[in-house]
Design brief:
about 100 residues, mainly alpha, about 0% strand
């Protein structure tokens, strides 16, 4: 079988400074992307999500107010119709009363 010397035992083996520099550059780039790019973007997304939830709450409140206003308008229309009916009934009764008074001597 093939036998090779262990890497650590090889004489003259040196760490490639190019590999070390590339590793440090990669680590620096990773930290830059993480702290300068990712974290602020994540915070912005969280802020936008919070704003969206607030908008949903506001929209629900406005929908509730709109429904209440529509209910009030229907109630007002019903009350107006009832008032008009009562006024007509009152006028009819006043006419009947006036006719009854004229018939009585």
């Amino acid at each position: 079988m093939l036998e090779s010397e262990p890497v650590a035992d090889r004489p003259g083996t040196r760490v490639s400074w190019m590999l070390v520099a590339a590793s440090l550059l990669f680590a620096a780039l990773l930290l830059y992307v993480l702290f300068v790019g990712y974290l602020p973007t994540k915070q912005r997304v969280l802020g936008l999500e919070r704003e969206l939830r607030e908008l949903y709450v506001r929209e629900a409140e406005l929908q509730t107010r709109l429904q209440q206003q529509a209910l009030r308008e229907r109630q007002l229309a019903a009350l107006s119709a009832e008032r008009d009916a009562l006024i007509k009934r009152l006028e009819a009764l006043e006419r009947e009363l006036a006719a009854a008074r004229r018939r009585r001597p």
